[in-house]
Amino acid sequence: MLPDADELAEVLLDLAVPHEDINALVRMGRRVTDDPELLRFLEASVDELVRGMGEVGGAVDLPQLDWASGPLQRCFPVYVFVAALPYTRAYHRARGIPDDVSRRTLADLGRNMAVHRRRHGRAGVQAPWWLTRHFRGELYQLGRLQFERTRPGQRTSRTLTAAGLDMSDGALCLNLHIPDHLGPLSPAACERSLALAADFFARHHPEEKFRAALCHSWLLDAQLKEYLPAGSNIVRFQDRFRIAREEREQADTEPVQFVFGDPELPIETLPRRTAVERAVGDHLRAGRHWYIGHGWFPL
Question: Of 68, 126, 180, 293, which is most buried, counting CB atoms within 10 Å of its CB?
Fold first, then answer.
């Protein structure tokens, strides 16, 4: 189910896997293909991943390799995604997805591994569950933002209906995600992404009607406006959205994780080099808390 060593290296490069990890992954790949037990586990994992390809919100539960903790356990999801790649590409071709969109979407595997190394100092896949959306045709990278085909939850649906949107007949929404390591979140970049998305989904998912754009992120916590100027990229991003609901559950580790790379960093050690770093750290050091913001705007 895996390509040979030479082709595997090229596939990993196409998926933006960090260069320093490729040689070790190729060596371990031989171990996977030579071990019947590992190969059976790989096949079962791929079957779970690609079942119901393209379904919105399909439940995927990738099994975790029951193996001694080490690089193979941390990196095994890489082989699952590589082995699933022919299924993903076939789905993309059937939908007419442009090659550049497919490539940039699936390159989130490499970004995820870069985040893992930043946090832990070694190779691994930080959040395999997150990448299942990319490899199942639920999520696409279009410019600065990622767009996930999704069904809104009951509370959000009630909010949208109360605002006058027709949420009957299985209406869908697009969840907006802001990938790391991709430059500033400028208004121009966001406008370009939204324009790309309008054309993309009308062209490649014409049977689906997307009523609203949603975003669930610490970047939508209104408290950020206490620290950042009105013209900052984050505040201008917030201003695109209407409030869907207020969150009461504290999420202090979210901004620490995304701004500083490690959610477990002690609050007193957080740097103050940028306006966002100062906002996140000073807020927590003052004994206050951060929350996930839930926003939407009509499409």
Answer: 293
| Residue of 119, 35, 47, 122 lying closest to 87 (CA atoms) | 47
Burial of 17 (0-12, 13-18, 19+ CB in 10 A): buried
The phi, psi pair for 61, rounded to 5°, reads -125, 85
Residue with tokens 């004994």: 287
Q: Percentage helix, strand, coil, to 5, in the chain?
A: 55, 10, 35
Name the one residue in this structure whose structure tokens are 């379904």.
55
- Could you tell me if 242 and 162 are in contact, meaning their C-beta atoms sit under 8 angstroms apart? no
Q: Which of 220, 227, 137 minimizes the C-alpha distance to 185?
A: 220
Start-end of H helices in the chain: 5-14, 19-34, 36-50, 71-95, 99-106, 108-120, 128-135, 154-162, 187-204, 233-238, 253-260, 275-285
Nearest to 280 by CA among 250, 297, 257: 257
> What is the reported pTM?
0.94
Please give the angle made by the CA atoms of 178, 187 and 99, to the nearest 5 degrees: 55
In this predicted structure, what is the pLDDT of residue 19? 96
Q: How far apart are CA 194 and CA 2, in angstroms?
A: 36
Rg (CA), the chain: 20
% of the chain exceeding 90 in pLDDT: 90
